[in-house]
Each structure stands twice: as structure tokens, then as C-alpha cells.
Amino acid sequence: xxxxxxxxxxxxxxxxxxxxxxxxxxxLAAMRADPRALVLPFRKRDPLLVGEGLGSLGWRGLxxxxxxxxxxxxxxxxxxxxxxxxxLGEVDAPEGAFIEMRAALLGGAFGGDAAAxxxxxxxxxxxxxxxxxxxxxxxxxxxxxxxxxxDCPACEGVHFPRTDPVVIMLIxxxxxxxxxxxxxFPENLYSCIAGFVEPGECVEEAVAxxxxxxxxxxxxxxxxxxxxxxxxxxxxMIGAIAETTDTDFTLEEAEIADARWLSRADLRxxxxxxxxxxxxxxxxxxxxxxxxxxYDRRIGWT
Length: 302
Ligand SMILES: [Zn+2]
Hints:
The chain is an alpha+beta fold.
């Protein structure tokens, strides 16, 4: 529908996921013995970053004492060489630093393919860290299939990594778009509104409901734009555009502190730092991609 939409950050990682190998115990064992195999360590939720400006992933060999005894999550193949992630406890960085990933994404050096690979790894690390017990019977589960499943030895339940869908939408009205300040945002930050898709809803219904709940606007046309995995802790942001003919906001006060209509020129000014009391969405967030694409006329109806 919007062929010119930009690719959001954290997408299209270069790794070959090689999903067919996950259930192949022989292949998994062979890959563990591959001298080219590398593992990306996480201290709790923070990836090891190295190099200039901490812009590179801190891959380690599988024989590194840092990851001794850790469960290894098979991420995929990089030019045929196995790549893993490992969620560790409180450990010291052998070089570089363990950095909270959202903070790293705000900096200048970390991004591109390194961030896309780390994003998928972090979502898996987050899932394993919070799903150590069976949701059916409470027994401890164990990692299987190279980290893409957890099995329960007591009730034989199998559990797969979760991704939670979230809709995030640019609201358009006659050459203007709505931006809003969530009560939990850093001061002055304005962005698109967003919310979790509820059970029983399709994406369009979730967009319409959230737009009515948070801003008090009815919606007409709703279109899909692009999506972004967002591993905080394990969401999939579904970027949409929704059209309205309503002008007046009725804000959901518990969630939204302020909302405004901006023209394309005003929105461009926001991203260029031209407003004293408003700041644009953070670098790497899909909200910024949607808003920039809209003022550049890559997406939108009016
Ligand atoms: Zn169980």
C-alpha cells in the first residue's frame, strides 16, 4: 500500500536463521564444535558492545570462560559460521562494556545490522529469563531446540518464544498529523500513540480502539505501513496510518499528557530541533520512521 515506506531500524538482520537446524541434534552438536562459532554475551539484559564508540557486538569464542556453563541460544549462521547468544548474571566485561540497549541505540555508533542482530538476541534472552517455569504446571522448564523452545519434564508442555503485537499509528487529518506526549515519556518528547493488540482484535480494530481511547478521535481509513521488532521486552510494533475527520482531542488523562496537530512543515521542524517545548521520538524507534516518512510524503493520503 505504501511502497515508498522506509525500513525501520532493528529489521532485516543479516544472519541466516537456519531454523531447520534447531530440531537437528546432530547439526546442533556439530555447530557447537565449530571453531568459527561465536557467542554474544548479555549481562542480564545488556549486550556486550566493543570497538569505537561501542558500536560493535562483543562476540566471544565458545571456549571463553565468560560463557562457561551458560545455555547457548542459537541465533543463526553468518556466512556459514554459527552465532549464539547467552544470558549471563552479574559478570565483568572482558573488553568494551555491557550497555542497556535502548541507551546504546540513542548513541551515535550502535545501529544498523549489529543492532538488528542484538535485537533478536535480546528478545530471546528476555523470554528465557522470564519463562523458567511451566505455565501449565509450574515445574522448571529446560531450553531445547537451540533455545527456540522450553520443555516441561513434568507435564510434557512445550513453550515457544513470545512476541507481543503492539499497534503504533500516525493519525492524519487533512495535511496534519497528531503527535502526543505520554505521561511516561521523558520531558517534552512527543510521538505517535501506541497500544497492545488485545485478544480477539485484528490490527485495524486495535488501531481504531486505541485512537478513540487515547485521543478521542474516530477513524476512517486505516492502512499498514511497516513493522519493527522491539525487544523491550519482546514486542512487535505494527506501524499503521489512520485517517480522521475529527479535530478536537479528548485525552485519556491517565495515559496522555498532551496532543497536538502538526503540519508537515511543523513536523519537519520538530525533527530539526526547531521547537523549544517539544522533542521528536528517539532515534531507532519506528515512530520516528513513520513521522519522517509522512512529512517526506512517502506515506499518507492527504
Ligand atoms: Zn508443566
